[in-house]
Amino acid sequence: MKKWFVMSLVAALFIVSACGGGNGGSNTENAGNAATNAPTNNASGNANEGAAEGEDIAPEEGASLLVWESKEERPFVEAIAKEFTEKYGIEVRFEEVGAADQVTKLTTDGPAGLGADVVVFPHDNLGRAITAGLVLPNDFYEEQSKTENSEIAVNAVSYDGTLYGYPRSVETYALFYNKALIKEAPKTFDEIVEFAKTYNDPASNKFALMWEIGNFYFNYPFISTGGYVYGDNGQNKDDIGLNNEGAVNGVKYYGSLKDGILPMNTGDVTYDIKKGLFTSGTLAMDINGPWTIGDYRNAGIDFGVAPLPSINGQPASSFSGVKAWYVNSFSEYPQAARLFARFASTKEAQLKDFEITGAIPANTEATNDPAVQNDEIVKGFVAQFNQSTPMPSIPEMANVWSPIAAAFSDVWNAGKDAKEALDNAVQQIKDANNGAAAQ
User: Fold this and answer.
1) Do 193 and 254 have their domain in common?
2) Which residues belong to the signal peptide in this entry (predicted)?
3) β-strands 207-210, 283-288: how paired?
4) 195, 100: one domain
5) How many structural domains is the chain composed of?
6) What backbone phi and psi angles, to 5 degrees, belong to 175?
7) Cα dist. 206→244, 253, 283, 355, 405 in Å?
8) DSSP string, 267-280
9) In the predicted model, what is the mean pLDDT of residues 128-153?
10) How many CA atoms lie within 13 A of 108 on its CB side?
11) Within 13 Å, how many C-alpha atoms sit on residue 248's CB side?
């Protein structure tokens, strides 16, 4: 799966323009919502025909929109919203909600009429959103989205043959390093341990490396040394590889790094703390995503980006994902919401996002733009894509995050045996999966 994903991603991002269908579907409730909110006012007069080249959907009279996004993306969202309002006269309000939290929040806020009209989340949450009937298909702009974006991105934001997302960016995380503190990126975690012996000075906030040590998204590399989440390309909920021998060995090594690299508890290492130390010039290395590029550049730090160091002699695979806009199926203004999702996901919008935040475009032409191709930082992320693993998108992925994060925290904070912690987490995941199936 990894080899297929890598070759497809690199080809889709940097070589060819591709179009694609997808996997996934909707339940009866979602189909009803989609029918209720289907576009009815467009130039062709037939909503099912979608948009012709250059044609826009007609928004509802008096429409105004609420958009959810994370604080890291706020500068881009506010910039693109301003352009949208100037062109269409539709007010757009921004509310800060982390991408990973949006499906959970929309589950309650959507039916209550409190949810954002347009939301954005990584593709691993799509199955859960579809099952709950929370988002509308990308129907009116379907063909444009398919032909303009990489096939990987289109497939990731589709479910049971239906396209739901308006692809915006592809992402993983990699190793940022401050060239003033360490000239070359380490190839192994063992090298970082050696560097930390002479560099670390906690009293002066000097640390060799930080990452969000309590967040499974960033801890997956320690599972990837022989383990996996779900089998069959992430689709088999009954085949869990989080506690096999390779995973256990990786998490044991993870636990050893508290003394070797980062003598802090999981709750004490946050995104903001890491960013503050890196921009102030005391943190030598940070494992982070492309959303951080803009902040680090603005801080004047001379940094590079490289693939993650190997773990126990094996390449460290990172999670990778696709972020896209989605239209809330309970939106009062579904056509205006579709219009914004399209406007904020075009080639021009994705290049603006890249310029402001460093987000790597899903749009093929945008990815081939010289502004992206000539960026050495982006090339570092592409190298990490070569050893990345797409997050599973089945609804049961939601049952993984909390138990496995707790297992990592137990190993790091309390020195719990790695196998015992992982076995416990896997049992919780199995119980949740079986409970969901029984319902």
Assistant:
1) yes
2) 1-18
3) parallel
4) no
5) 2
6) -100, 110
7) 35, 22, 6, 30, 26
8) GG--HHHHHHHHHH
9) 94
10) 3
11) 13
Half-sphere exposure of 221 (CA within 13 A, CB side): 30
211 contacts 399 by C-beta, under 8 angstroms? no
User: Model confidence at 40, in pLDDT bands (50, 70, 90)?
Assistant: very low
408 in the same domain as 338: no
Query: Which range of residues forms the domain containing residue 425?
Result: 174-319+392-438
**Cβ count near 46 (within 10 Å):** 10
Indicate the residue type of 265: N
Q: Is residue 407 packed enough to be buried (19+ CB in 10 Å), middle (13-18) or exposed (0-12)?
A: buried
Both 354 and 411 in one domain: the answer is: no
Chain segment 326-339, per-residue pLDDT in tens: 999 999 999 999 99
Sign for the CA dihedral angle at 271, 280, 385, 166 comes to positive
What tokens were used for 222? 């320690």
Give the model confidence (pLDDT) of 338-353 as tens digits: 999 999 999 999 999 9
Strand residue runs (E) in 198-336? 207-210, 230, 236-240, 283-288, 303-306, 318-328
Q: Where are the beta strands (DSSP E) in 331-382?
A: 360-361
Residue type, 350: Q
Are 39 and 137 in contact, with CB atoms under 8 Å apart?
no
Q: How far is Cα of residue 48 from the mean position of the Cα atoms in its chain?
A: 31
Global pTM? 0.68
Is 75:294 a contact under the CB 8 Å cutoff? yes
Q: Helix or strand or coil: residue 236?
A: strand
301 and 381 inside one domain = no
Q: Give, rounded to a whole angstrom, the gap between the first and last alpha carbons of the chain.
A: 31
Nearest Cα neighbor of 132 from 105, 157, 156, 158 is 105
pLDDT band at 373 (very low <50, low <70, confident <90, very high): confident
Is pLDDT at 37 greater than 50 in this prediction?
Answer: no
Instruction: Using the Cα atoms of residue 232, residue 235, residue 239 and residue 241 in order, give the sign of their dihedral.
Output: positive
Strands (E), 329-402: 360-361, 388-390
Q: Which of 257, 275, 282 is nearest to 202 (CA)?
A: 282
Q: Report the length, in residues, of the chain.
A: 439
